[in-house]
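Worked example 2:
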Amino acid sequence: MDYQKICKEVVAVSQSIGDWMWQERKKFSKARETKSFNNLVSYVDKTSEEKFVKELLRILPNSGILGEEGANSNLDNDFIWIIDPLDGTTNYVHGIPAYCTSVALQYKGVTIMGVVYEPNNKECFFAWKGSPAYCNENEIHVSDKNSLKTSLLATGFPYDDFSKMENYIDILKFFMKETRGVRRIGAAALDLCYVASGRFDGFYEYALQPWDVAAGAFIVQQAGGKISDFSNGENFIKGGEIIAANSYLHETIQKKVDFFFNGQ
């Protein structure tokens, strides 16, 4: 199978749908629903997912779909698309230009492709099995920072899981003192792509879903970065927690997050 060809097609689809979302934002009425406390969904999310499903099934007929907005089908198929049609809905609703589309393709449970498109800056991050990572047509790499003191990190806050809030604040306090800063953009897929391109040196977050991280995590790996869950395991797609960084900083960040979060 020609993964490069498929990836190029997904890039074109993502750009088309992402640009439609960007145009739609100009007349957006803030019509929205609430999936759970502080977790919004708009008609743009739902329409975008419908568009993605149609196009992805055209590209790879009979493949499975796992989508944030409920478009789930053929999940026993070898090929599964994992879709977040609009990562950063709260930003989108409030007119903050930090949101993106996110599409990953898995084969027998292993991610083999990731495409993330940010329409405000017209930046498309992508990679396929065996390829480097790209932003548009330029190859990207994680940073080479090897000291927390000179690093810039990113994180995110859960919408409704506050069971470990105090632990998370302790992590934040530590990194605020020991790094150049901690940013919270509000779109995990975008955070991961910024790690892949060396803009952030590391990223950590919990209470995430597969569609939040599958594409971005793969792009980080193809850009030379390291991904794990908080315990340094590999359950970062379905396990709800993730650490992404370059190979110099990953262990340091992981050990600090694990210590404050899990007391280890």
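The chain has two domains: 3-140, 148-262. The CA atoms of residues 112 and 129 lie 5 Å apart.
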